[in-house]
C-alpha cells in the first residue's frame, strides 16, 4: 500500500476519534475517554490490518514493546468534581499525591487562596460544593456541615 494512502487513512481515523470524543463523551470519565480515543481508530483501521500480510518481528521488537507498555499507577486517584452557582457547569480536578478532594475544596472556598489554577483558573472563591462526578449530587464529607450554597442571581456566571 502506498504511504500517502496509509497516511490519509490514519489522519481520517484520528480526526474521527477526536470528533466522536468531543461530541458525545464530554461528560464522561477519563478512563472512558481514553478507551474511546484509542478504540475508534483501531476499529476503523481493522479492515486494512486484516488485508495486509504481517512481517515476522524479531525478539528485540517485542522487548521494546514490553518496555513501552504503560505501567498502571498504584495510587491512581479518582477525580474530584465541584459546582458553584456562579460557575457555569461543573469543575473536575484530579488531585496530586499531596492533595485531596477536601483540600481542593478548602482552597476553592478560601477568599485569600491564590497560586493554583483549579477550574480553569477561576477567581470564584466562595460557595463551592463537592459533587459526585457521575450524578452531580452533593457529597457531604464526614465531619463537615451540610453547606448548600444559595444561588446569587445578581452576580454573573463565569464560564469555563
Layout of strands and helices, then pairs:
Blueprint: H1 3-24, H2 30-51, H3 59-68, E1 80-83, E2 91-93, H4 101-108, E3 129-131
Shape: elongated
Runs with pLDDT <50, length 5+? 146-150
Distance between the termini: 45 Å
Question: Which sheet architecture does the biggest sheet show?
Answer: 3 strands, antiparallel
Contiguous helical run count: 4
Summed up, what is this model?
This protein has 160 residues and is mostly helical.
Which characteristics define this entry?
single chain, 160 residues, 6% strand, 39% helix, 3 strands, elongated, 4 helices, mainly alpha
Protein described:
- With 160 residues, the chain is mainly α.
- It has helices spanning 3-24, 30-51, 59-68, 101-108; strands at 80-83, 91-93, 129-131.
- A three-stranded antiparallel sheet has the order 2-1-3, covered by helices on one side.
- It is elongated, with a radius of gyration of 22 Å.
- The N and C termini lie far apart (45 Å).
